[in-house]
Design the sequence.
């Protein structure tokens, strides 16, 4: 938000430097991000003065040039060669002296230097209006008022305005500071706190001259929904002339980055930024019947000022006449009711609209205007009529016309101020320092907060309705503290802290452990938006449309539902990177999924992994090799192992997300599901390479980790390893071998490991070889050869009978 310092000075009579003001505003919570200089004419006409042409003669060597002598008020006339056909002796003209910097139409700077033109010296330049940036004409030099004195700075003649503009990073809660008056009000409180002996008056524009000239154009107003439009005012003005605004008004708007339109529109924008009250001017001749403030049927078509036909929602508030909608209330005007160059009569609107309703309408239609920005944050309902009168007087000043109706003010239920009790003891406790009671009273008074009652315990306060962010005692304490100054609070050198005993399985601790391990594998952490498109439910049968948690007031259709799965937001990130030539990816995310069930809303936390592309970066020292299923499985196993889940079982996973997938179970619980994402899903994200995905049930991981830690002593007796080379059918999975071995020997068989798989020469067709190791151990005694051979014999027999295996 841009704030003009010259404009602020219309509210406060101060002479502080812009640096001091910027510092004070920042301390008050209105952070000034930058201070820029503004000049209504680039360069400010510095070095341009009024000159008196004493003589004018033809150049001896050029028919189109003249040699003039010009009095610049220095006592010694100078010679200037001029090519303008209208230059003549006796004229008062603008002269750019030696060293003056001017700007061409493209904004490129050039400097006036002493030189020779066709052999004659020239000590300056007599200027046309386009050369000074005062217009576009280049028909000849400018002729000034003959009464002007030579040497008078041109900046004073043309009322060049020099200003300084504050760029304020306004936080959403400070709706009261969305205007120059609001910022001036805050600045006044800061100045009073800095110097309590100063009594600064906030000078507000007077509307005492407002009067009805003729009652000849009354337009009735009917507010159908007082909840959405608690206050609505209107007045008519006749006999206006639409034309460009005077320079002072244009300069005010230009200084804060607005482009002047015409005198009426400029006035409404001026009052908006002056007082914070949005206004709208209708061409009264285009209004058919009365003005009605209401909602309309869903599906109604309405064309706005930007020439876009919009489909209205049943909750959109409209300003209508007897024929239909004229304006989206508080958001955007209509194409067919606005002010044009032929307008002579106006209906001027000033209103207070429900902030929630305006925000919904603005977001629903993808519109963001200066008016909606203020309405949706909450404006001051007490200045609605005052701002209307202020605008009406300004329109009369710049566009002429007469007030031709009484002000109609529909305000059925007054919006009351807030009442808060401030406890001195609580205030001092939160601030961390005891402030004098009189200081507190002065601060609240400087913020226009009225003291309704006072006692030794505290103050009964009445908060103005425009301070929508100050409704609790702590809010008042925050106001006191920011005006008193955070930097003025004393801090002790003593540091007090308590050490909290947190379990080792605290969520953030476990996350840090896993994140560090994944980082060491080359993974990068990502954070995706929990808001996503509801259309992703069409990509998988695991998601249901009725499970979608839908936003009541979405920012856009693509961000209108909470995600049911972290898969699709992760694939968005993968696609984004691949499209930018970053195709070798390892990503992980800790996040939540959200579902709406019959029992209520459900949130689950997950850890997801994504891997795609090559294993390592391209280098002359290694050969490029793509990530494969088993490498990705190794990442998942290493995480489970690090967390102590060593005895997990692998089970096939069949769903419409994975082309191939397995689950890691711990007991009866599925800890992780991982696999290769189906190509049909990848196609939706325009991903043409294989992507591996793993989804950890993080809530279950934490639950199992929180159980009491169990441990066993290291066995005293040695373990024994025996190996089998099993010849099996190519359709037999190792999982089958694993299950048969476990069922055969449950107590002494500790580990089963597949360390080689062979298919090819010297094997019968349709066969493959598994090299499997078995670790056997008894915790109570040393095993004998007889016991070991018996176990191995049982394993061999069961492999042969159940799997058709043979020993190679």
Sequence:
């Amino acid at each position: 938000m841009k704030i003009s310092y010259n404009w602020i000075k219309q509210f406060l009579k101060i002479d502080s430097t812009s640096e001091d003001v910027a510092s004070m505003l920042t301390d008050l919570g209105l952070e000034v991000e930058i201070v820029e200089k503004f000049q209504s004419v680039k360069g400010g006409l510095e070095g341009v003065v009024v000159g008196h042409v004493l003589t004018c003669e033809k150049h001896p060597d050029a028919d189109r040039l003249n040699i003039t002598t010009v009095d610049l008020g220095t006592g010694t006339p100078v010679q200037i060669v001029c090519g303008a056909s209208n230059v003549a002796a006796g004229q008062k003209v603008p002269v750019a002296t030696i060293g003056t910097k001017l700007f061409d139409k493209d904004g490129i700077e050039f400097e006036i230097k002493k030189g020779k033109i066709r052999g004659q010296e020239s000590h300056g330049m007599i200027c046309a209006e386009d050369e000074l940036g005062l217009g576009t004409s280049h028909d000849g030099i400018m002729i000034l008022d003959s009464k002007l004195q030579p040497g008078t700075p041109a900046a004073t003649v043309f009322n060049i305005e020099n200003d300084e503009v504050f760029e304020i990073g306004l936080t959403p809660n400070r709706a009261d500071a969305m205007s120059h008056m609001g910022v001036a009000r805050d600045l006044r409180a800061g100045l009073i706190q800095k110097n309590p002996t100063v009594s600064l008056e906030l000078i507000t524009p007077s509307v005492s001259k407002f009067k009805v000239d003729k009652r000849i154009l009354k337009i009735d107003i009917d507010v159908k929904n007082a909840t959405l439009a608690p206050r609505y005012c209107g007045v008519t003005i006749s006999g206006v002339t639409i034309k460009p605004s005077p320079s002072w008004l244009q300069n005010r708007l230009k200084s804060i980055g607005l482009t002047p339109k015409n005198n009426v529109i400029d006035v409404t924008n001026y009052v908006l930024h002056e007082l914070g009250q949005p206004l709208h001017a209708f061409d009264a001749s285009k209004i058919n019947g009365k003005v009605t403030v209401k909602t309309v049927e869903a599906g109604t078509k309405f064309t706005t000022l930007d020439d876009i036909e919009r489909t209205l929602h049943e909750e959109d508030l409209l300003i209508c006449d007897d024929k239909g909608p004229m304006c989206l209330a508080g958001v955007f005007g209509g194409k067919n009711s606005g002010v044009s160059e032929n307008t002579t009569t106006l209906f001027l609107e000033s209103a207070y609209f429900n902030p929630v309703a305006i925000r919904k309408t603005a977001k629903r239609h993808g519109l963001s205007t200066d008016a909606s920005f203020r309405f949706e944050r909450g404006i001051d309902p007490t200045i609605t009529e005052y701002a209307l009168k202020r605008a009406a007087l300004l329109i009369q000043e710049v566009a002429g016309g007469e007030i031709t109706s009484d002000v109609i003010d529909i305000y059925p239920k007054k919006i009351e101020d807030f009442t808060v009790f401030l406890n001195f003891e609580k205030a001092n406790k939160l601030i961390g320092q005891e402030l004098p009671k009189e200081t507190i009273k002065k601060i609240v008074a400087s913020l226009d907060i009225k003291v309704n009652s006072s006692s030794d315990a505290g103050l009964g306060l009445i908060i103005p309705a425009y301070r929508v962010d100050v409704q609790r005692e702590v809010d008042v304490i925050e106001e006191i503290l920011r005006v008193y100054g955070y930097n003025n609070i004393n801090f002790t050198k003593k540091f007090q802290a308590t050490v909290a005993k947190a379990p080792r399985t605290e969520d953030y601790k476990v996350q840090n452990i896993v994140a560090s391990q994944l980082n060491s594998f080359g993974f990068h952490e990502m954070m995706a938006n929990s808001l996503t498109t509801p259309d992703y439910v069409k990509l998988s049968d695991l998601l249901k449309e009725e499970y979608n948690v839908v936003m009541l007031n979405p920012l856009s259709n693509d961000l209108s539902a909470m995600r049911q799965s972290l898969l699709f937001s992760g694939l968005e990130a993968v696609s984004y990177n691949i499209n930018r030539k970053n195709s070798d990816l390892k990503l992980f995310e800790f996040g939540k999924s959200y579902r709406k069930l019959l029992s209520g809303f459900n949130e689950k936390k997950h850890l997801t992994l994504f891997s795609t592309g090559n294993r390592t970066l391209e280098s002359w020292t290694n050969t490029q090799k793509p990530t494969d299923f088993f490498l990705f499985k190794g990442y998942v196993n290493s995480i489970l192992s690090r967390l102590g889940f060593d005895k997990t079982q692998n089970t096939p996973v069949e769903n419409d997300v994975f082309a191939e997938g397995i689950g890691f179970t711990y007991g009866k619980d599925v800890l992780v599901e991982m696999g290769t994402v189906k190509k049909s899903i990848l196609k939706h994200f325009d991903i043409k390479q294989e992507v591996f995905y793993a989804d950890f049930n993080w809530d279950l991981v934490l639950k199992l980790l929180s159980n009491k830690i169990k441990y066993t002593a290291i066995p005293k007796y040695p373990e024994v390893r025996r190996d089998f080379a099993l010849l099996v059918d190519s359709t037999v999975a190792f999982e089958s071998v694993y299950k048969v071995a476990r069922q055969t020997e449950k107590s002494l068989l500790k580990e089963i490991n597949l360390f080689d798989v062979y298919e090819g020469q010297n094997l019968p067709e349709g066969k493959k070889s598994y090299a499997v190791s078995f670790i056997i151990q008894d915790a109570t005694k040393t095993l004998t050869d007889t016991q070991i051979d018996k176990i191995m014999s049982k394993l061999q027999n069961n492999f042969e009978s159940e799997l058709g295996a043979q020993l190679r």
About this structure: The mean pLDDT is 91. The longest strand covers residues 585-597. Residues 785-803 form the longest helix (19 residues). The chain is about 25% helix and 30% strand.
